[in-house]
Design goal:
Elements: E1 2-8, E2 12-19, E3 30-37, E4 42-46, E5 62-64, E6 75-82, E7 89-94, E8 100-105, E9 109-112, E10 117-121, E11 127-132, E12 138-141, E13 147-149, E14 154-157, E15 161-169, E16 172-173, E17 177-182, E18 199-203, E19 226-227, E20 230-232, E21 235-241, E22 245-249, E23 264-270, E24 281-287, E25 294-300, E26 313-319, E27 329-335, E28 347-355
Parallel strand pairs: 8-17
Antiparallel strand pairs: 1-4, 1-6, 2-3, 2-5, 3-11, 7-10, 9-14, 9-20, 10-11, 12-15, 13-14, 15-16, 15-17, 18-28, 19-21, 20-21, 21-28, 22-27, 23-26, 23-28, 24-25, 24-27
Amino acid sequence: ALTFYAKGTKAGTINDIGFGQDFFGDEFAVTRRNLRLTTNWRKYVIPIPDASRLTQSQGLLWYAEGPENGDGYTFWLDEVKYENLPGLAQPRAAIMNGDNVTQTSFTGSSTSVTGLTYTMNQENGVDVTVGAAPAYYTFNSSNTSVATVNSQGEVSVTGVGTAEITASLGSLAASGSLIIQSVGAFTPAPTPSDDPSDVISIFSDAYANVPVDHFNGFWEPFQTTTSNDFVVDGNNILGYENFNFVGIEFHINVPTIDGSEMTHLRMDVFFPDDIPSNSALRVRLVNEPGADETSTSTIIRPTTNPALVSGEWISVDMDITGLTDRSNLGQIIFDADEGPGLVGSTFYVDNIYLRR
């Protein structure tokens, strides 16, 4: 384990601390998250998932931390070293955070095994869990004619059917799995034809995209929508599952978009499963998200034009000129509030951009 002593001028939480971040790929990086400091010196432990693979190490120690409740503070580290701790016991490894996750995929698509963790029980009886790089694990596919997985946990879908991706850490079987259900060939969204000079692109391989904070902020506690983004033959697709609402944000740590000269918000949407008659997808564009926000929206139903249908791409071209101030655009929100039939559904999105 990597061990050290630490204390702060006040109680605080170091967001991330670990080893192996070497700026050359971070092949053997390990991260302990939310490390709680006190004002007294205390010894901390970061377990090594598989020491037999850590034969040469760069990046002995790194951390990422910011102010606590807006206030800065000082903390100290001492006696940083690798050591053999016989008191560590009950090793447990996991992928996909220990869950058995099923993903619908397509031939030619790719995804990655995520949620790689390693847990040890310390001498004081308290568990410590770290996030571990894929290089510590050995991955396996139950059906390589459907999906293969490389040493970095990158999965390539090669055929139709089901394959279960599992992993081990040394002799320790990891809990959790990624179950790939490939339904065959994927039909890409129509290639956009708008001139790049008339476009501000948010998500599209056809244009240069502006910076985005995230494509799924997961607004707790009521959001159920999860992400399953994927790549098919080099084409990036946003995938949303367990849908109720979800937001794309570009105003937190990146500039808002000045869309004053833009007249439409365009995107392509695909629902792979049957659409119940009481379904509706609302798309909302928000200016200045927060207390003073304004927005405009459109609702797509099975009876509108374009119609909400399954099994084909729906091209949405939303008139946004009703939003008088478009100078600080910061959010695009999808929700099923107007049509509960879509709650729990899966859909894909591509080619999101503003145009004039």
